[in-house]
Amino acid sequence: MIHTLFLDLGVLFVLCGNSAFEHTPTAAPAVSITVAARSIQPGELVVLTIDTAVRADGLGVRAFNRDMPAVRVGPLQWRALIGIDLGAAAGRYRIFVDARSGSHTTHASQELVVLARRFPTRTLQVDSAFVNPPANVAKRIAREAREMRQLWEQSGPGPHWSEPFVRPVPDPSNSAFGTRSIYNGQPRSQHGGADFLSPTGTPVKAPNAARVLLARELYFLGNTVVLDHGQGLFSILAHLSVLEVRQGDTVTAGQVVGQVGATGRVSGPHLHWAVRVGGSRVDPLSLLALLGRH
Ligand SMILES: [Zn+2]
Hints:
The protein is mainly beta. It has two domains: 2-114, Sandwich (Immunoglobulin-like), CATH 2.60.40.10; 121-289, Glucose Permease (Domain IIA), CATH 2.70.70. It is 7% helix and 43% strand. The chain has two helices and 23 strands. Strands 14, 16, 17, 18, 20, 22 and 23 form a seven-stranded antiparallel β-sheet that branches. Strands 1-3-4-8-7 form a five-stranded antiparallel β-sheet, with helices on one face. It binds zinc ion. Zinc ion binds next to loops.
């Protein structure tokens, strides 16, 4: 079923045929790597399709110093997701693929030339407690940041989804991903999600099937749901007024997980949707472009 998700790749950037092959004199499989993305830039999702000449028993993918799960999608085909982190420097990177077949391993690699990306700056007015938090919440903020980082290690290798990804709310995104925010005149870190300007109470849907890793109030993100879609892919849905799932629940694509609100560090009601791929921050709109319903 996952196969059908990729029929729209014609509109996207596709790079292939440059893979470096290493043939051994024995029957080890040749491997080709196809890269699909909106662009090869910081904050973009990259979908790798890996074709092997003979059936591989297992396949390993390594990019940005991280092993990423590869999933078999056909007898001779595998797929892996790579996130180019929002903060990645422009430059030349290499994706490494190991295809194991019996006692043979074939190594292939693909260069990824990450181009520079300029992000805009925005100024926002929020409650001063979110710009210079009182000393007594510093511990809480540090603990929550640590907990969130640990979540990105918890995804299973296989995807929990088999359908295309869907928008969590019908309203458009203001494309604030990557923007450098200045809160009450003070610069803060880049915006790691996309904001959807939906009114309070709008139902927020799970972008796809997932396990609920977290469903509670956080200092900056307010009422938050973290979803593990599997295969190293996570959604964060934040600033909710109401939570309608609990940690440990499983949800289906489009299932309501809460309602839009204005909790946490906000200047008004909206949905903040952030996506992590292997810990890398990527634009949710790049996920929709590559794996979404069209
Ligand atoms: Zn946001």
